[in-house]
Amino acid sequence: MLALLIAAAAAQPPNLDQLKKAANGGDAEAQYNLAVIYDRGQGTPANKVEAIKWYLKSAGQGFVKAEYNLAIMYDEGDGVAENNAEAIKWYLKASNQGDTAAQFNLALMYDKGEGTAINKAEAIKWFGKAADGGDVSAMFNLGLMYDEGDGVPENNAEAIKWYRKAADKGFAKAQLNLGLMFDEGEGVQENNAEALKWYRKAADQGLAKAQFNLALMFEKGEGTATDRKAALSWYTKAAEQGDTSAQYNLALMYEEGDGTPKDVVTAYMWYSLAAQEGDEDAKAAMQALAKRVTTDQVKQADARAKAWRASHANPRPGF
């Protein structure tokens, strides 16, 4: 995800006429602040043309915040035609002055080949600089590249190092991946208790995959005592976010009365939802269950599945 937050001007901007006078006099910070006012419509109608004009003047003097904001506008086509080459140009200028958000965005563009040829070495370089500057997303992306051997030799120790740095700062996807590495013993001795700890941290932030993995550990008693009710609870959280594996496992628990009273209507509903998303095991289980329940129960389950889909038409992005 691009670091799209445009740096703000002062909370209480100076008198607009005074600011214009300073900006026209060549003050780079005043030019930047004037650009932000036009960009956001603070105390004056928004005017992207004027914003670009003053960002360019400020950035032309090396004012790093203006360089970054200008890059964002070219990157997003905000008030100007989208131009990845111009975005890279200004990200690079801001990056060379140590702006970590610019460094992260520049790394993404090299990683994806936007406005330039794909260059994993440059991506690693700029992710590294942003990570060293404290950018948590860059830490995670570095971990991912070392984990997958993407543009760099696969190195689980380096992956764990960067995942842990991001995880310690609360980055949910890093917490999940760190949990996976402890769970599977990749680059570290297998440790179910540590896996459980990191899965829980990510699950508490709403990451469906972590919720599913946590439920699985409670169900199997890995890293913790077996707890069917806890498993049911975490499967439910993941299932409600559309995780089909969780929906299938949740259906099984309701069908078997495992950790909850037996409820074939609820079981059929969850099988149906998972099956509709292409889960073949859920489809087979639903078809088998259909032979053991009444027509009325199937109708109830179908109605509940329809209502669920209607209420979950816009799932949470990124989970």
Description:
It is a single chain. The chain is mainly alpha-helical and 319 residues long. It starts with 15 loop residues before the first helix and ends in an 8-residue tail after the last helix. It has helices at 16-24, 28-40, 48-59, 64-76, 84-95, 100-112, 120-132, 136-148, 156-168, 172-184, 192-204, 208-220, 228-240, 244-256, 264-276, 280-290, 295-311. The chain is elongated, with a radius of gyration of 26 Å. The chain has 3 domains: 15-98, Alpha Horseshoe (Serine Threonine Protein Phosphatase 5, Tetratricopeptide repeat); 135-241, Alpha Horseshoe (Serine Threonine Protein Phosphatase 5, Tetratricopeptide repeat), CATH 1.25.40.10; 246-311, no CATH class.
CATH class of the largest domain: Mainly Alpha
Helix count from the secondary structure assignment:
17
Number of domains: 3
Q: What's the assembly state of these chains?
A: single chain
